[in-house]
Structure formats: C-alpha cells, structure tokens
Design brief:
This protein is mostly loops. Helices cover 13% and strands 0% of the residues. The longest helix is centred in the N-terminal third of the chain and has 6 residues. The mean pLDDT is 76.
Length: 79
C-alpha cells in the first residue's frame, strides 16, 4: 500500500516526490527516547537516521554532561 510523502519530507526534500513510490519502503518512522545510543564508536552504520523533532548528540562525556555544539550558519559544519 502506498503512503503519501510526509509533509516534513516534502518540505525539506522536494526531489523525493518524483521517486517516492520507489523509495518509501526504505523509510521506517520510529520514536527514540532521550539518551538512546544509535551508533557506537567503531561500528559501521547500517541505517540512515532522519531527525524530524529533537536533536542528536554526536558524543557524550564520561560524566554525562551534554557538551555544547555550535554550527556555522554558512556551511553547517561543527565548530
């Protein structure tokens, strides 16, 4: 059964609309609780995570503090 392209994907990735019938089987929405480890160091990723709501921590410190992450507006790279 074909599901429509979700509005948040249509807005951010308009080129998906033309190929949605072929690629929709690769998208599996799921809710992840806070502080869940999605990928550990040294592991090769087998999934692509598209964060719709919330944020993604790139690492954590040993004392569980959240390190600040700053992005450059022009390039989107981490400072």
């Amino acid at each position: 059964m074909t599901q429509p392209l979700p509005p948040y994907l249509r807005t951010k990735f308009p080129e998906l609309a033309a190929h949605w019938d072929q690629v929709q089987t690769y998208f599996h929405p799921c809710h992840v609780t806070a502080h869940t480890t999605l990928l550990t160091e040294g592991t090769v990723a087998t999934k692509l995570y598209l964060i719709v709501q919330g944020s993604l921590r790139m690492w954590h410190t040993t004392d569980q503090r959240d390190p600040p992450i700053f992005l450059r507006k022009s390039t989107g790279s981490v400072v």
